[in-house]
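step: validate -> pass
step: tokenize input -> pass
step: predict -> running
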Amino acid sequence: MTIWGNLIAIAIMVCGLWLNNTWIAAAGCAIALVLSIPIIYRGIRQELLDSLSPAQRLQLVASITVLIALVGLLQILEFFEYVSSFSDRIDWNAVGASGEWGGAFGQILIAILAVYIAWRQYIISRDLTIEQNRLTTQQNVLTQQQTIDTYFQGISDLVLDDDGFLEDWPQEQAFAAGRTAALLGSIDAAGKAKVLRFLSQSKLLTPLRRDRRLGRAILDGDGGYDEDRLHGVRVIDLGVMLAGADLSRADLRWADISDANLIRANLSGCDLVK
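step: predict -> pass
step: emit ->
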């Protein structure tokens, strides 16, 4: 019934508009409003009851009441009449010109903002690049240290056999020298200094007096091995391993690099005590 009532009301309104009869069109509109508003109200009311708590419904009604009260108060104070009279006194041509100036100024501000955003993006990108490089450097340092530690362990296992100092196995001496040459060619100055100090303190670079027949290192009677700088044999002979090497600002204190070929090596800023 309601659907047919709405359709009839729409038909009456259309007929009134077609006949240019205000009363018939107004009657159709009134009938449509009377039939439709209760339906819409019931739907909205049920939706509000289902979705809003009593406190929320009270806040909604209070907000609508405050809005209506403000509009009424402004009407009582003749605010809208004042706005209308003020609008009549405004030179809209001047306002248009001001708007053009404002638009130009706004474009300048947008350009400045774009430059600022691009600059901030550059700063952020630069900081990210610096941080990434720092992390990469740290990772390279850790990787190098792990490589050096593995080398130390490998040389220690190779050297500390039952006889000591590889005197009976020249091939093992060649392996030790080869591993040392490969390592020194792949690490930085600080890493080279660590390796040289380790080999020096372990007497692996020192020419030792050896038994002519067995090749074994001879003890000096004081708990160490006797050195022979003229005819002794080193466990690892550096040879040309340090030729052209970068050893700048390295800590080479007590490092035994005697007879090593240091042609074109960079020793600037090194600590060469002892």
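step: describe -> The mean pLDDT is 80.
step: cleanup -> pass
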